[in-house]
Amino acid sequence: MFPLTRLQVTSRAVLKLLHLVLMVFSLSPSRLPRSILWIRLIVWIAWYVYICIRSLTVAQTMDCDLDCMLRHMLTVCQTASHSFLVVSTFIQGFRVSRKQPDELTIIFEASDPWVAFTVLGMLAPMIGVEYMVCSNVAGYERRVWLYHLKTLPSFLALQLQIVSFISEVMEVNIRVRLAKLQLVILARELSSRWPQCKYLPDSLDRQSYRIEALKRRYNELHLLYDRINDRFGGSLLIIIIVFFADFVCNSYWLFVDVRTTPKRRINAILVKMGFIFNVALQMSAACWHCQQSYNLVRTFSLSFNLCLIKGMCFQGRQIGCLISKLVKPQGSKRYNELVSEFSLQTLHQRFVVTAKDFFSLNLHLLSSMFAAVVTYLVILIQFMFAERSARGHSG
């Protein structure tokens, strides 16, 4: 094992820091003493109770318009989502502390610079936007800075959860690329026409252990994706719903501020643009890396097939059905059965990340969300003009 370079040491320190921050926000099921788990849960429950009492008090004493209702709705959604993550992490913490975790339950000891750079690239705008909010509290209305105060921890926690999810998907994708490289090397050796003796049954049988190793590695990678789906599936479903609502509401507030806010309060516009940018960046990164996972399993089979079947071009979705052509007539029965099993394995075990099987995370999800955002934004703008028209008539 070679020693880590300075860049790798720095990358590992960044990812360790992310892990510590996740522990603070009760998002990491680490092996902590039960007393600490209980204290952490009680602290967050006390915060949630305060938020609920404060929201009910404000709702009874103020006359809520459309803007006020949207802020209350986002406060409830973000707080409830964070509470779900805290409770689920609390339960997972007890499970982890009772049994010895294996490779599939240990958080990656990663040192990849690209993963660390991606994490920093998403954390920097998050911190920048929250700094802009906190440094200009005096310029906000009372209900606006109360909204930011109540939603700050929960919204940060949801963003940190999606950043943690992206980092783990990137780590598994790196392992898939390494396994794919081993497959390409094997395929190139078998596709070479020289020497002819390697196509003899005995020679092919000597390569069977490499195919068996690739089958085991492929199964381990599929288990890693199952682990990601089990751990993040429910939280992804909730976070995507909250991010969608946050994106729509901040787009609506941005539209209102652009029409009504004077130039001296340009900071309010920048803050809402920052929230929109963060949500769009994190959702795009999550969907893009999940799309890469799906593409890698397609190219995993494609690499083997194209190296062995020359002069032919196939679509990626048809590759799983064509791997059976890798069976060599001159090979032994054991070798041919092994290749057939590998073909069935790649057909049935797909590297797909889903939100509790409601939908898959890919680039198609982004286009669907964008269309829905435009639809709901138009509806909110129509409500705004209708509310102002009603006020004008009543005045």
Descriptive account of the structure:
It is a single chain. The protein has 395 residues and is mainly alpha-helical. The protein is 78% helix and 0% strand. It is built from eleven helices and no strands. Helix 2 runs antiparallel to helix 3 and helix 3 (66-98) runs antiparallel to helix 7 (208-260). It is elongated and about 90 Å long. The N and C termini lie far apart (78 Å). Residues 97-108 and 306-327 have low confidence and may be disordered.
Calculate Rg over CA atoms: 26 Å
User: How far is the N terminus from the C terminus?
Assistant: 78 Å
Q: How many beta-strand runs?
A: 0
Structural class: mainly alpha
Number of helices: 11
How confident is the prediction overall: mean pLDDT?
Answer: 76
Low-confidence stretches: 97-108, 306-327
Judging from the principal axes of the Cα atoms, what is the shape?
elongated
User: What share of the residues lie within helices?
Assistant: over 70%
User: What percentage of amino acids are in beta strands?
Assistant: under 5%
Secondary-structure element pattern, one letter each: HHHHHHHHHHH
User: Mind describing the biggest β-sheet?
Assistant: none
